[in-house]
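[Q] Does anyone have a clean structure-token version of this?
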Amino acid sequence: MDELRPHDPARIGAWQILARLGAGGMGQVYLGRSPGGRLVAVKVIRDEISDHPESMARFRREAATMEAVRSPYSAQLIEASLDAPPYWLATEYVPGPTLREAVRVSGPFPAESALRLFAALAEGLATVHVHGVTHRDLKPQNVILAPQGPQLIDFGIARGLEWTALTQAGTAPGTPGYAAPEVLMRNEVGPAADVFALGATIAAAATGRPPYGGGDASVVSYRTVHEDIDLTGVRDDLAALIRRCVAKNPAERPALAAVIADCAVDSALTADAHYREVARDTDPVPGRGPVHPSAGAGDPDRPGTTPYAVPDRQPATSVPRRSRRGALVACAVAALLVPVALWQFTDPGDDDSEPGAGPVTGSTVSGTATPRPTAEDTEDSEKDKADEEKPAGPPDHLLNGGVTEERWALSDDSYESSHGIGRCDPTSIAGFGSPNFQSSVSHTTGSGTASMSVRPEGTGSGKRPAPYYVSVGVRPPHETDRTTGRPLSSKSKGIGFTSKPVDLYSRWSKGGSLTFRYPDDFRAHFGSRTVDAIPVSADRGDWTVVIYHVEGGPTEFRTISCSGFHA
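[A] Here you go.
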């Protein structure tokens, strides 16, 4: 709980504002008190997005969902003001830490306690589903461990069961590591997706670790789709139930009633010694005894709980490119966009680090295990081109001129940043009309190198498509001195160091993957001057990796993907 700041309101509606509880997906959450002394959580939508139609629709949907859902496992809506700014809603104030905070402070749940929590949350989801609503973003941050039992919060992206996809094309709901494979791959959301998120949430509670590991958001998403959940050290019966809930095929997941039965609890969760210990009130509320802050209508642990919202931004001046049609979010941002032209996945094991060299801190992913050639090897594809007419080839290099706005940054959230998760800004990338492909970016902490891999969909089958030229740009955090090649203090604005443009399909019959080694395969070109790429270790901070479609000469290219890593 934080003290109020000078610009914070003293009163919202009838509620006297006492303190800051945190930030929800679209606004600030305050602790409020009625004239009669009742405490509430007041969520106020931010002024800068109050006139954004999608944001307002989501805010109204949250209010409607909370009004419709009457459950002992969710905070109740008390009042809302949705007709004129400032827009706000007030819900019951629920004291207690989030599940994530409880595990961070007190460690993983013992198996018996985890089973009791499993059953309680399954019952809570079942009461939500009875009202025709799917939560769509269950995770440890959205579970409050209240003294009377766990509470589900943040229904900002909840939907009726008749909804199967977001109205905004090309976005996926939920949080990487907790969103089900069918959500990430096809935007298919239903009760089974909530069961998957429940299993992943209990896995996090039982292990104290992210269920599908850390790293870039799309790295985690790739693991969720293709790899096993991390249940190392979990008791066999609990692990077996979690695995059933996180089955890749939604049809194989158990119903919530079956989950509750399989937990076989014989006593109340609130009587569990571990739960009682972690659910204790801990922080003082102004004018009241000690309680722990938590917002019934927001996520006090994580500012910006909507990783899939696309901000309304004005683009800066950039290198020449086509119109930015479509909302295609790059794979290193917090959104994984599968239903549109560009596919971005992640593969934690598909990196080029030496054994024992340290953790990979940020990457987006190629889904291939095929040995990959270096960039120089991508020229040997003449035998694959016999039946095709090759147009004029690409330029030898791209000119580092002008200013480009794509920039990757490590997340401000302490949990995400500790796992190397970051996002590209802006989140709308001009990928319209691009072919389907997978990409990866790998960097080992402390090393001076990185690698990028690109692999088109369908390699090795059918006729090789017509050439489609791509180049990878790697931009350090700071500008590079054109004479010495050393980083300067100013923020980097150009496209950085780029690879030689190559045909995306030049390895069609040989595994399909193109690999670019940084710094070996990269140079910066300033007119007639060429500067060798600097090692990653020479410039600490957030590095941006962009894949460009090369459309003509050295200044004719457009962004089709953005990712990055922190060094």
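[Q] Thanks! Anything notable?
[A] Confidence is low (pLDDT under 50) at residues 156-171, 288-391.
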